[in-house]
Amino acid sequence: MFGVSAVYWQGVSMVSGAAEPWDSPAYGIAYLVALAIALAAGLVIGRAAWLIGLAISFAQIPVMLWNGDGAVGNMAAAGLIILAALTLPLIGVAALGTIIRKRRAR
Predict the structure, then answer these.
(1) How many Å from the N-terminal Cα to the C-terminal Cα in the chain?
(2) CA angle 71-74-79, nearest 5°?
(3) What is the 3-state secondary structure (H, E, C) of the chain?
(4) Closest by alpha carbon to 36, among 72, 89, 74?
(5) pLDDT tens-digit series, residues 17-73
(6) Residue 59 burial class via C-beta count within 10 angstroms: exposed 0-12, middle 13-18, buried 19 and up
């Protein structure tokens, strides 16, 4: 899941021309797609929703490092806090997917 997410976020950066995915003018739309990915992953994988959300959100870190030539700026700590906050809805949607999968399996 982490690798797929990193490729996705790199695609967002490449299409928008932004070094960091969240600097993209279309980040809101990209995040909605990430929520759909989390739901689909929850439906398919059916477990570890917290890990799915964490992987999707934090996969932005290697993209930021790659596109920023590995430089870690003075906003890194704030960036980690923001990524942690962005993880919560992804975890919730992935959990919803796992719940739906379990109910359908009955």
Answers:
(1) 26
(2) 90
(3) CHHHHHHHHHHHHHHHCCCCHHHCCCHHHHHHHHHHHHHHHHHHHCCCHHHHHHHHHHCHHHHHHHHCCCCCCCCHHHHHHHHHHHHHHHHHHHHHHHHHHHHHHC
(4) 89
(5) 998 898 999 999 999 999 999 999 999 998 888 899 999 999 999 999 898 877 777
(6) buried
